[in-house]
Design a protein that fits this description.
Strand content of chain A: 5-15%
Strand order of the largest sheet of chain B: 2-1-3-4
Oligomer: heterodimer
CATH class of the largest domain in chain B: Mainly Alpha
Distance between the termini of chain B: 30 Å
Radius of gyration of chain A: 17 Å
Protein name (chain B): glutathione transferase
Strand content of chain B: 5-15%
EC number (chain B): 2.5.1.18
Enzyme class (chain A): transferase
CATH class of the largest domain in chain A: Mainly Alpha
Structural class of chain A: alpha+beta
Strand order of the largest sheet of chain A: 2-1-3-4
Largest sheet of chain B: 4 strands, mixed
Pfam families (chain A): GST_C_3, GST_N
Order of helices and strands of chain A: EHEHEEHHHHHH
CATH topology of the largest domain in chain B: Glutathione S-transferase Yfyf (Class Pi), Chain A, domain 2
Order of helices and strands of chain B: EHEHEEHHHHHH
CATH architecture of the largest domain in chain B: Up-down Bundle
Shape of chain A: globular
Number of domains of chain B: 2
InterPro entries (chain B): Glutathione-S-Trfase_C-like, Glutathione-S-Trfase_C_sf, Glutathione_S-Trfase, Glutathione_S-Trfase_N, GST_C, GST_superfamily, Thioredoxin-like_sf
């Protein structure tokens, strides 16, 4: 097993999906959480001045959360098992990343925050979740892509977890997706990780 | 070989890298270009209301240019041959997507657009390309990843092509990448494709 080190800030966002992959797979890794004060010194050592970055033994560092998640998914058997199934899987991953990136993380005014989130939910997120809910329900599987858990289910759980910091009720409109999130959260390795994470 | 149909607008944009892969691999596909006036009717029939979408035989349509690129790269052997090589290719594509998305192509206010474009170039695009150029030059290889043509080389080529719209001499700032792009363009199948493709600025 290679030596893994994940470099990210001490937040959930784009690093958490990756941490969840390691947790579910039961693979040890160094979870380096960068403090704001350390960042100016660390930034120029990263491939593109951003995080997350994955260090694998002494190989060139790997940047970009999507590339890291897909790679680890394949390495740990949390991928969808074929080029085409993986494509559908990563499509969903990219969609969650798209939506996650437009949330008003920096907005400090709670009234503005709430209003922005409501608008995003109404105009963008809920319509997409609606389509997903219908497809997922019609497919009749336990997981988003096929019959087994993939890194995309973990990314979806993370997306819902992060969004629930802004709005606690949105998932109640999507019962099959809600059930999926509960199934993911109940998995022993995930449950343990979430209980113990910073 | 499956039946492929790629649906996009009549521009390069988010479909061109896929088109380049089909061209280089010599794979026939239906290159469906949607006219502006037909889009409102077509939009609700797309999985997420966006383009490009790839149809593969009678399978569920595949949206998201990133997912399409990755799938086609794997199917047509532009994936570098290993999970790790593919991860580095993925990284390059994601960086290009990141920095490219900072350019306010849709901004209607000319002054804001100019300011936003300058910011995107100076604070995102040039720094990223500085890093890629440096690593590529130091590595001394002919291609970006895995010693052979991959999705990463085609993605850089496409980016350099459309970047001319916002910086006419863009890729010349990066001699090793410029040489790579010229090598890509000179490949017989790519050369033929470039000569015959519809001419659009972006």
């Amino acid at each position: 097993m290679p030596n893994y080190k994940l470099l990210y800030f001490n937040v959930k966002a784009r690093g958490e999906s990756i941490r969840l992959i390691f947790a579910e797979a039961g693979i040890e890794f160094e979870d380096k959480r960068v403090e704001p004060s350390e960042w100016p010194e660390i930034k120029p050592t990263t491939p593109f001045g951003r995080v997350p970055v994955l260090y694998i033994d002494d190989k060139p560092p790997l940047a970009q959360s999507g590339a890291i998640a897909a790679y680890l998914g394949r390495e740990f058997g949390l991928d969808a098992g074929s080029s085409l199934a993986d494509a559908y899987a990563h499509m969903l991953f990219d969609s969650f990343d798209d939506f996650g990136s437009i949330l008003p993380y920096m907005e400090e005014d709670p009234v503005k925050r709430k209003a922005t989130v409501q608008e995003l939910l109404e105009k963008q997120i809920n319509p997409a979740l609606d389509k997903m809910e219908k497809k997922f329900k019609a497919g009749g599987n336990d997981f988003l892509v096929g019959k087994k858990l993939t890194y995309v289910d973990l990314a979806f759980w993370n997306f819902c977890d992060v969004l629930s910091d802004f709005d606690k009720t949105f998932l109640t409109n999507f019962p099959t997706l809600d059930a999926l999130c509960k199934r993911v959260a109940a998995r022993p390795n995930i449950k343990k990780y979430v209980e113990n994470r910073p | 070989m499956p039946n492929y149909k790629l649906v996009y607008f009549n521009s390069k944009g988010r479909a061109e890298v896929v088109r380049l892969m089909f061209a280089e691999a010599g794979i026939e596909f239906e290159d469906k270009r949607v006219q502006e006036e037909d889009w409102p009717q077509l939009k609700p029939t797309m999985p997420f209301g966006q383009l490009p979408v790839l149809y593969i035989d009678d399978k569920p349509p595949l949206p998201q240019s990133g997912a399409i690129e990755r799938y086609v790269a794997r199917e047509l052997n532009f994936d570098g041959g290993s999970s790790l090589a593919f991860a580095y290719i993925d990284m390059v594509c994601n960086v290009l997507e990141d920095v490219g998305s900072k350019v306010p192509f849709m901004e209607e206010d000319e002054a804001k657009k100019a300011a936003g474009t300058k910011d995107a170039l100076e604070n995102h695009i040039y720094p990223a390309f500085d890093k890629i150029e440096k690593k590529f030059k130091e590595g001394g290889e002919e291609f970006l990843i895995a010693k052979r043509l991959t999705l990463a080389d085609l993605a850089i080529f496409h980016f350099s092509d459309v970047a001319r719209v916002i910086d006419a001499n863009f890729i010349t700032k990066y001699p090793t990448l410029d040489a790579l792009c010229k090598r890509v363009a000179a490949r017989p199948s790519i050369k033929k494709y470039l000569e015959n493709r519809p001419k659009t600025p972006l």
